[in-house]
Design goal:
heterodimer, A: about 325 residues, 14 helices, disordered N terminus
C-alpha cells in the first residue's frame, strides 16, 4: 500500500498565465460583489464562514493533495490558532495583529512538530497519529480550565481593531461587510501565494515525494524535510483561519475544534478535488452553504450532506475539479491531455 | 483498603476493556482483509445500543436477548453498507476514497438516528444494573459479570474461528496476500463480506453492553471509536492478539486514570500512549510482518 493512489487529479494540467489572471480578476469581482448582493446579516455571516472554511481547505489541501500526507487532524491547527491568538489578546493584552502572527506561527510549528514526530509514518498510521494529535489538543483545550476556561468557553472576543486611513472612512470590523472583505482578501492572498508555491520547483519537489518517495530520495531530495515544510505551511494557514474564526464569532468553545471538524475540512477538500487549489475553494463553499440551503428540511439536512459526500466519492472521486474538467472536455473547450 | 480500590478498579477496567476489545477487533479484522479504516464502525456501536434499548422497552424482553438482537442488527447493517458502498469502491483501488466514504456514511447514519431518536440522552438501565455481588470488599454488578462472560466467550469463539476453521484460515490468508489467496481458489469478495458482517455484529453487540456506561445519544459511538482506533494501533494494525491485549490495557488505564488522576485526562493519557507507541514501536505491541506503512 502506498500513497500513490492519492491523486485522482494528477492529470490536472497547469493553466497558462492569461487564464490565471482572468481567474484572479473574476475572484476579485466576485469577492467585491457578493456582500453587496447578499446584503442581510444571515448571508453575510455565511459568506465570512465560507471564506474561513476556504482557508482551512486550502491549508489541508496543501498537506494532503500536494505533499500526499494523510492528515486527519487539521482541526487541531485550527483550534490552536484560535486559542493562542485569543488568549494572547484576552490574557496579555497583545495587539490583534501581533497575536494573529503568533497564532499562525504556533500552529505552523505544531504542524512541523507533528510531522517531525510522525516522520516514519505513512498512510493510515499517519492518519491515526494525526487524529490522535487532534484528540489530545481538543482534550487539553477542554481540561486546562485555568487557561482556556474549558467547556464554559471564552466570550466577548473583540474583532480586529478598526483601520483608519487618512482621507477614507474608518474601516470598522464590527461591520460584517468589512470583516468579509478582510478574510476573503487574506484568503485570496493565501491562494495566490500557494498557487505560486505549487508551480515553483518546490511544488515539483513535493509532487515528486508524493508520487514516489524512494525515487525522489535517489535524486537527492530530503523527503522528511519537505514533508515537515508542507505540514508547517498547511498548519499555519489553518491557524490563520482559527484566528479569524475567534474574532469573527466572538466566542470560543473547545467543541468547535473536535475531530469531526477535521472530517468536515477533509470533506471540503475531497468534494472539491484534492491536488488542485481551485477545487477545494468550491468544495468549501458548497459544503458550507449546502446545510444552510437545506435548513428547510430540518434534521434531515445533515443526512443529505452525508449522502452527498458518499455519492461524490462513489461516482466522482476527483471531486468538482474533475467534474469541471470532464464538462470542459465534452464541450470542447479544454486542451486534451 | 488500597488493595480493594486497586482490585475494584481492575475489575472496572477489564469490563470496559473487554468491550473496547469487541469494538477494536472489528476494526482490526476489517483492516486486515481490506487495509481500510472504517469510521462508520462507530455508528454500528450506537445503533446496536439503540436496537437493544428499543427491543427491551417495546417488547419487554430480557437484556441477554437484546444483546443478541443488537448483534443481528449490527450484522445486517454491516452487510448493507459493505454491499452498497465499500464493495463498489474497492474496485477503484484507492486508499483515501473509502475512508472519506466511511465518514460520509457515518454523518448520514448519525443524523438519521438524530432525526429518529432525538438529541436527548436515553437512560439505559437493565434488570442486572443494580444486582450487586460482594466479596472481600469488592462490588461487582451482575451487569458486569454478563459483560465479562459474553465478551470473553465471543472473543474466545472468534479466536478459535480464526485459528482452527477453514474459513478463519482463509480469512487470514486473504489478509496476508489477497492475490495469492485468490489463486488458491478463495473468493476474496465473499470473505471481505464475511469479515464486514462479523465486525459489525461485534460492534452492535458491544454497543448493547456499552450503552449503560455511555451517554446514549446518536453520537455516542464516536468517543468509543476514537479510542478503538488508538487500541488498534497500539496492538498493531490487523493483529488480533495485540488488539485484545491493547484493549484490556486501555480499559485499565481508563479506570485507574479515573481513580488516581482525573476522568478528563483519560483521552490525553490514551492518545499520549498511542503517540509514544508510534514513535518507539509503530508496528504495535505484538509485531507482524506488516511494515510497509511505517
Amino acid at each position: 500500500m502506498s500513497d500513490a493512489a492519492l491523486r485522482p487529479n494528477a492529470a490536472a494540467g497547469r493553466s497558462s498565465a492569461l487564464p490565471r489572471r482572468i481567474g484572479l480578476l473574476l475572484a476579485v469581482i466576485a469577492i467585491t460583489a457578493l456582500p453587496l448582493i447578499f446584503n442581510d446579516t444571515y448571508w453575510r455571516t455565511n459568506l465570512t464562514i465560507c471564506a474561513i472554511n476556504v482557508l482551512l481547505a486550502l491549508g489541508l489541501d496543501f498537506i494532503l493533495g500536494y505533499a500526499g500526507q494523510l492528515n486527519l487532524g487539521h482541526s487541531a491547527f485550527y483550534g490552536l490558532g484560535a486559542y493562542v491568538s485569543t488568549l494572547l489578546i484576552v490574557k496579555l493584552g497583545v495587539p490583534f495583529w501581533a497575536a494573529f502572527a503568533a497564532g499562525v506561527a504556533f500552529s505552523g510549528f505544531a504542524g512541523m512538530f507533528l510531522s517531525l514526530f510522525a516522520v516514519r509514518l505513512r498512510g493510515h498510521y499517519l492518519a491515526i497519529a494525526s487524529l490522535g494529535f487532534a484528540v489530545i489538543v481538543h482534550q487539553i483545550l477542554l481540561n486546562w480550565i485555568g487557561l482556556t476556561q474549558g467547556p464554559l468557553g471564552i466570550y466577548g472576543i473583540a474583532p480586529p481593531p478598526a483601520i483608519a486611513i487618512p482621507g477614507l472612512p474608518v474601516i470598522d470590523f464590527h461591520n460584517l461587510m468589512a470583516f468579509f472583505y478582510l478574510v476573503s482578501g487574506f484568503t485570496l492572498l493565501v491562494y495566490v501565494l500557494l498557487d505560486q508555491l505549487v508551480r515553483s520547483p518546490i511544488g515539483e519537489t513535493l509532487t515528486a515525494i508524493r508520487e514516489d518517495e524512494i525515487s525522489a530520495a535517489s535524486l537527492g531530495i530530503n523527503g522528511a524535510a519537505w514533508k515537515v515544510f508542507a505540514f508547517g505551511v498547511g498548519a499555519a494557514v489553518g491557524g490563520a483561519a482559527g484566528c479569524f474564526y475567534a474574532s469573527f464569532v466572538g466566542t470560543l468553545v473547545p467543541d468547535a475544534f473536535f475531530v469531526t471538524e477535521a472530517f468536515n475540512i477533509l470533506a471540503m477538500v475531497i468534494v472539491g478535488g484534492m491536488g488542485t487549489l481551485i477545487g477545494p475553494v468550491f468544495g468549501a463553499i458548497l459544503l458550507t452553504l449546502l446545510p444552510e440551503v437545506l435548513r428547510g428540511i430540518g434534521d434531515l439536512r445533515l443526512v443529505v450532506y452525508g449522502a452527498a459526500l458518499t455519492f461524490v466519492v462513489l461516482f466522482m472521486p476527483g471531486g468538482l475539479a474533475q467534474a469541471a474538467r470532464v464538462v470542459r472536455e465534452k464541450i470542447g473547450l479544454g486542451r486534451r491531455s | 483498603m488500597t488493595t480493594t480500590i486497586v482490585l475494584q478498579q481492575a475489575i472496572n477496567g477489564i469490563v470496559l476493556g473487554s468491550l473496547y476489545v469487541l469494538v477494536a477487533l472489528g476494526l482490526t479484522l476489517i483492516y486486515g482483509v481490506l487495509v481500510q479504516i472504517n469510521f462508520a464502525h462507530a455508528d454500528f456501536v450506537t445503533l446496536g445500543a439503540f436496537a437493544a434499548y428499543f427491543f427491551m422497552h417495546l417488547v419487554g424482553a430480557n437484556y441477554l436477548l437484546a444483546i443478541g438482537v443488537a448483534f443481528a442488527v449490527g450484522a445486517a447493517l454491516g452487510w448493507l453498507i459493505n454491499a452498497s458502498v465499500f464493495m463498489p469502491l474497492r474496485r477503484k483501488g484507492n486508499e483515501l476514497l473509502p475512508l472519506i466514504a466511511t465518514i460520509g456514511v457515518s454523518v448520514m447514519m448519525q443524523n438519521l438516528m438524530l432525526a429518529w431518536f432525538g438529541p436527548i440522552p436515553y437512560a439505559f438501565e437493565t434488570q442486572y444494573s443494580n444486582d450487586v455481588i460482594r466479596f472481600a470488599g469488592i462490588f461487582v454488578t451482575w451487569q458486569n459479570v454478563i459483560i465479562i462472560a459474553v465478551s470473553g466467550i465471543t472473543i474466545a469463539l472468534l479466536y478459535a474461528f480464526m485459528k482452527f476453521t477453514f474459513l478463519g484460515k482463509a480469512l487470514r490468508a486473504v489478509s496476508q496476500d489477497r492475490e495469492t489467496a485468490g489463486l488458491m481458489g478463495i473468493n476474496p469478495n465473499q470473505l471481505i463480506m464475511l469479515t464486514f458482517v462479523i465486525a459489525s455484529a461485534l460492534a452492535g453487540m458491544a454497543g448493547a453492553m456499552l450503552a449503560p456506561v455511555l451517554v446514549l445519544t446518536p453520537f455516542a459511538g464516536t468517543s468509543v471509536i476514537v479510542k478503538a482506533f488508538a487500541i488498534v494501533i497500539i496492538g498493531g494494525f490487523g493483529n488480533v492478539e495485540g488488539t485484545i491485549l491493547a484493549g484490556l490495557i486501555v480499559g485499565l488505564i481508563e479506570s485507574y486514570t479515573t481513580q488516581y488522576l482525573d476522568p478528563g485526562l483519560i483521552d490525553i493519557v490514551v492518545f499520549g500512549l498511542l503517540l509514544v507507541m508510534l514513535a518507539i514501536k509503530p508496528t504495535g505491541l505484538i509485531s507482524e510482518r506488516r511494515e510497509e506503512n511505517v
